[in-house]
Amino acid sequence: GTAEQRVLLASSAGYGFVARLSDLVAKNRAGKATLSVPGPGVALPPVLINDAEGRVVVTLTDQGRMLAFPLADVPELSRGKGNKLINVPSAAFKSGAESMLTIAVMGETDHLIVRAGARHLRLKLKDMEHYVGERARRGAKLPRGFQKVDGVEIESS
């Protein structure tokens, strides 16, 4: 991408931030530490952001909780731990009972597809009213049968 392209970086601890690709380029052969991951957590795959206008961040935990909030609420940093995106209790995270599973960025015309086993749940932005909240909240439980999430994808219309 271009140097001005933005990317959403997050860890399974529930923290994340937006960075520019130009901030991620390293001169050293050994690389550069951009995302600080606390404790037993891991870095989640980065999400490219093409157009930040009107976008919504969707976060899911492995306990079947989902939270959606505006992308504008996520800070833009060059490196660090970031801000809390979804509230994963620290005791549950350290014991391995709960962690953030995935993040996605969607627009008004996109569909969010939540896969759980052989089933899938297709949601538009207007169907997600129950899951919309402020950043760093706990999130709402997905319907029964979809709480063990296998994967999430964004389908553009």
Topology readout:
Blueprint: E1 6-10, E2 15-20, H1 21-24, E3 47-49, E4 56-61, E5 65-70, E6 83-84, H2 90-95, E7 100-106, E8 111-116, E9 119-124, E10 140-141, E11 151-155
Antiparallel strand pairs: 1-2, 1-3, 2-6, 4-5, 4-7, 5-10, 8-9, 8-11
Task: Walk me through what this model shows.
The protein has 157 residues and is mostly beta strands. The model has no long low-confidence stretch (mean pLDDT 93). It contains 2 helices and 11 strands; from the N terminus they run ββαββββαβββββ. Helix content is 6%, strand content 34%. The protein has helices at residues 21-24, 90-95; strands at residues 6-10, 15-20, 47-49, 56-61, 65-70, 83-84, 100-106, 111-116, 119-124, 140-141, 151-155. The chain is globular. The strands form 3 sheets. The protein has a 4-stranded antiparallel β-sheet. Strands 7-4-5-10 form a 4-stranded antiparallel β-sheet, with no helix packed on it. It has a 3-stranded antiparallel β-sheet with strand order 9-8-11, with no helix packed on it.
